[in-house]
Amino acid sequence: MDEVKIVVAHSERATLRVGDVFLKVDTDQVRIDAEVEAMAAVPVPTPEILWRKPPVLAIAAVPGATLGRLGEPSTASPAAWASAGAAIRTLHDAPLPVRVGRAGRGLDELRAELDGECELLVAKGLLPADLVTRNRQVAEAALRPWTPAFTHGDLQIAHVFVDGDSDEVTGIIDWSEAGRGDALYDLATFTLGHEEHLDEVLVGYGADVDLDVIHAWWSLRSLLGVRWLLEHGFDAFAPGCEVDVLKSRM
């Protein structure tokens, strides 16, 4: 019998692996609907959907291996990072979906959320005030008008798989936050904690981008993530993770 492995689990959702099948358990059907719709629409490799019985979505494992994980050095080649950049560009050039994704929140809403989170981080003693203030200043560059693109919305490097021999992308997983959004949000999420690979990604992406905006999204995403991560059992203070990303902007 195949072993049941808990991939990730918190109060909002859980993902289990049984052999080559992943079972995603999520009571928020809007997220599951968004994931299914996105995987059917995007012009990049995605997992095969095996079956769906709310609140469970069963998908097949994709071949290859991830480029790495946040907080760990990546052993992937420059060609693999460039290949990922090319796949991200293909996604961003796809016809726009109807849904607004996580990367497409309104600027007023995002600014209010960010300011509230910064106040809480300091009030609760989670981060020093000067660290929060500096990164809030950096984050402001992300709060500008942007041209909508088809975005993944949670494009962590652990969600992108590549073939070890060809360095080609074999699959991109976890599409529940997909929809219209800011393309630079995806690029920043993908390179968060792996700044040294940004140039390689942009070689494959093949377009000029505003680096100040990517730096701003690194700060913004980290500021919004620290408290949630700590409250859900993740260590944002681990080497190379969100708090180190914030410190790198000082």
TrEMBL record:
Check the record and name the Gene3D superfamilies matching this protein.
3.90.1200.10
One Pfam family linked to the record: APH
- The Aminoglycoside phosphotransferase domain is annotated at 34-208
**Protein's name according to its UniProt entry:** Phosphotransferase
> Which organism is this entry from?
Streptomyces atriruber
